[in-house]
Specification:
Length: 68
């Protein structure tokens, strides 16, 4: 996994959340299972959190991830 691939996966996550709204990590992994592994998704989400593009929302004992 290199920086370019992490950035591409970050784009997949951003586009998914932009289209569908807040999702759980499990939902994100399920939606992107054809494009990226669970580990790759976590790396890309870390990138997006570091860039202050994502936030978490606690709702009904679940943690949702959404765009800021």
């Amino acid at each position: 996994m290199n920086t370019k691939e992490i950035g591409e996966n970050a784009g997949l996550i951003w586009n998914l959340l932009n289209e569908k709204g807040a999702l759980t990590l499990a939902q994100i992994k399920k939606e992107l299972k054809e494009q990226a592994s669970g580990e790759d998704i976590c790396l890309a989400m870390g990138w997006l959190f570091r860039e202050d593009k994502l936030e978490t929302i606690d709702k009904d004992k679940k943690t949702l991830i959404s765009l800021k």
